[in-house]
Amino acid sequence: MVRKKVKAVLFGPQGCGKGTQGNLLSDRLGVPLIGAGELFRSEITAGSQLGKLVQDYVSSGTLAPDELVNAVVANQLKRLDLTRGYVLDGYPRNIEQANYLDRLTKVNLAIYLKISDQEAVRRLSGRLQCSACKFVFHETESPPAKPGICSICGGKLYRRDDDTEDVIRRRLAAFHFMTEPMATYYRQRGVLLQVNAEQSIPYVFQDIMKKIIKLGFFA
Ligand SMILES: [Zn+2]
């Protein structure tokens, strides 16, 4: 039973298992999981002025400025029912955005899924995705039964272009520079919950739940 409304943000470097933990959390707590990507897609689909601006950034592959990202989030959050609480994934990505979000809706839990760069590279560089059903395997963690073939649909497996060590390292550097300072920001606000995300999925989730219960969010 939820005692205190959870208004959570989830962050961590690529490969930290954010998506998986986000889903587990939203199921267990009975609150919606809100992905930043979805918010952007809805704005684009709506065909609004904002959506058109976002579309330009998405198609050019450049990072949208904070003002635009914040405006989309504000606009989309207004349309959602947040009365039961929420888990937000993929936003905020820097302190500016974290600050803005706090003015929209005061975050009371910031979950930082921490893994080392070495572990992130290990996890990401071994990924093999199915060209047909998009399922993701891992060379050593969860290999397909037959090499190169999807165990689910029989499709061909491939390594994504952005999963090379070079690209991964660059993204990790961006995370440390841009996003990681949010840990300090939320720690100062007294809402940081840092978890060792190098453990297996159930252990990471257990750690999060233990801490959440301690904080009085859930019983
Ligand atoms: Zn497949």
Short description:
By secondary structure, this protein is α/β, with parallel strands linked by helices. 47% of the residues lie in helices and 16% in strands.
Task: Supply the CATH class.
Answer: Alpha Beta
Number of self-contained structural domains: 1
Sheet of most strands: 5 strands, parallel
CATH homologous superfamily placement: P-loop containing nucleotide triphosphate hydrolases
CATH-assigned fold name: Rossmann fold
Quaternary structure annotation = single chain
- Compute the separation of the termini in Å: 5 Å
How much helix is in the residues? 40-55%
The count of β-strands is: 8
Shape-level CATH architecture: 3-Layer(aba) Sandwich
| Beta-strand fraction estimate | 15-25%
**Whole-angstrom Rg:** 18 Å
N-to-C series of helices and strands: EHEHHHEHEHEEEHHEH
Q: Any ligands, ions or cofactors bound here, and which?
A: zinc ion
